[in-house]
Amino acid sequence: MFRAGRTRDGTLALTRAGLPPGTQILSASRHGSDRWARSAKVVAKLPDGTVRPYFLRGSAGESGKQMMRGEYESLLAIWNVVPTFCPRPIGWGAFKSKPNTYYNLSVFHERVSSPPDPGAFATMLARLHTRSKSPDGRFGFPVATFFGEVLNERVGADSWEECFTAAIRHLLALDEEINGADEALVELREELIARVIPRLLRPLVKIKPALIHGDLCLSNAGIGDSDSVEGSGNVMVWRPAAMYAHNEFELGMWRAVVNGFDRRFLRAYLKQVPISEPKSDFEDRNALYALRHVIACSIRYPGSAKYRLAIADEMRALVRRFSPGPDKALPLPGVDEEETLVDEVDGDGATVLVGTGTVAPPPPLNKAAKSEKVGNRAKSKSIVGGKLVKRL
To answer: What angle do CA 230, 221, 345 make, to 5 degrees?
Structure first.
């Protein structure tokens, strides 16, 4: 992104992003780049002589513009509620010498380890969920964000059911655009939207929009350390795709074994934030919310038959469970009905309900499955909104 002797545009970017005029770049090096954006650690000298590290991310094209703005707005929303829980955002914009290339600037924090203490991490996450307030009282987010490289469209809805339905429709449509139409998936989608979503989300009449990180896998959370004095050594999160949602939506991603957050984190969180009523629906809501992660994986890895099979399996399990009608439910396959929710008592005698279900990672493709790949796009390409991300 930056090279020695080519710091002028970077200096202008830092200044326009909100740092004082006269700020000078001392060094810049790549740091943690991914498939859809490039990242750099930039050490800058402020006009008063203070030397500070910053984190600069960049991506090109309209999708890059949305991504950089979405990440900045997400960081800003989280930082305004719990300032030490994420890097302080500085600003976002377009590079002067590359008008079609955009950046997002924040204070630099090195992720030195995974969250070692479920309790400490759950405390910070609970603060974010319970202290936040949607600016207009609606569910959604004012700008588009990105779940990895997968576009989350800008959504604003008065009910959580409406917001979640719009999000699932968008993801399934994007998966169909990239991987091709599948008649069975279309039928399951309509059953899910017509029967399952209303049954599970419409009873949530008492919930209020909570600010969630939106992409809370273990690689986006940890202990932050930095040359900066701001928040050094704190439990922190990075690369959010924020949304005002049902707080339990955040936990859906943890259902996947490969996510990294095990049941210790779920228990710790539920000791601080009670399960929403009706509590008996928690396990089913969690399975419904986990669909987002599976669909996103199918979008990220075009042609992977195992993820499309996983989407169908998860939707089919939910549809079958509620096929007898909205007031009667069949047990989830492989889950003992009596073990769906487990009562546990903490040291203070408070009872918490913990879901026990887990979704195993899809099995590896065999030779036959590999030959059935949908589409011809290479896995190394990033897909955003049905189009390839234009790299720097």
So the answer is: 110
